[in-house]
Amino acid sequence: MEDNTAAARDESRQPTAHDLEVLSRQLGRPVRDVVEIPARCVCGNPLVAATAPRLSNGTPFPTTFYLTHPVITSAVSRLEAGGTMNDMNDQLAEDAGLAAAYRAAHEQYLAARDAIGRRSGIGAVPEIDGVSAGGMPTRVKCLHVLVGHSLAAGRGVNPLGDKALDMISEWWTADKCYCDGAWDTTGEAPSRDLSRHGPQGLPDIVGRPAPVRKSAGSGKAAE
Ligand SMILES: [Zn+2]
User: Fold this and answer.
1) How much is the pTM?
2) What is the full DSSP assignment across 98-164?
């Protein structure tokens, strides 16, 4: 590989402030601990976010590649709803070659995660040694994970992620930009501040009273 190609790839992996804003708009929530952008639309927008194998709060995090582009995530959801995962699990049980390739994809996932841990200065995360995601190495439990892996690793690494990409080609292909109108670009992006409140903050926002622990009179205030 040419040095300048590798350098260009390293540069495109680095998430910019704009990337992080786009990610939070794509997902409708703030993103945290994103350390690389391993796959981009032809227009440059992120397709996949790579999360650190250990979050900043110390939690080990095995799911490295997260599919963020709404056009792809909804297309993959359609496959899931249509029973594609059951079909793939049947194929894994019947086809030894496919099963071996899928196991190799699992190993590549672990190696890619180790490399990301090294590049981001996090180092080894022994708690998740041998643990990948999406059901690998023997099952298919989340197609989004497999497609995220295929987009991050490139074709020819994850056979079932590649297959799912082929199956969504009616809705998304790598050679075109599908970003226009795919997420809300108006107003402020979901901010870090909101994430701190989480679902617990919701009753206040929507004006519902918080549950009452003690009631002076009836004793039946809550429920
Ligand atoms: Zn695009």
Assistant:
1) 0.82
2) HHHHHHHHHHHHHHHHHHHHHHTT----GGGTT--STTTTT----HHHHHHHHHHH-TTS-HHHHHH
Stretch 156-174: mean pLDDT: 98
All residues with CB under 5 Å from ion ligand 1: 41, 43, 45, 177, 179
The Å distance, Cα 61 to ligand 1 centre, comes to: 28
Read off the pLDDT band of 102 (50, 70, 90). very high
Q: pLDDT tens digits for 195-217?
A: 444 333 333 333 333 444 444 44
Res 3 pLDDT > 90 = no
* CA 162 to ligand 1 centroid distance, Å: 20
Q: How far is the CA of 182 from the centre of ligand 1 (A)?
A: 9
- Number of H helices and E strands in the chain, helices first, is 9, 3
User: How is residue 60 written in tokens?
Assistant: 């080990």
User: Residue 65: its pLDDT value, please?
Assistant: 97
Helix (H, G, I), strand (E, B) or coil at 208: coil
Q: Is residue 7 scored above 90 in pLDDT?
A: no
Ligand 1 centroid from CA 190, angstroms: 20
Q: Edge-to-edge, what's the strand order for the sheet holding 65-67?
A: 34-40, 46-51, 65-67
Ligand 1 mean position, distance from CA 132 (Å): 28
- Ligand 1 centroid from CA 74, angstroms: 16
- Whether the ω angle into residue 137 lies within 30 degrees of 0, i.e. cis, is yes
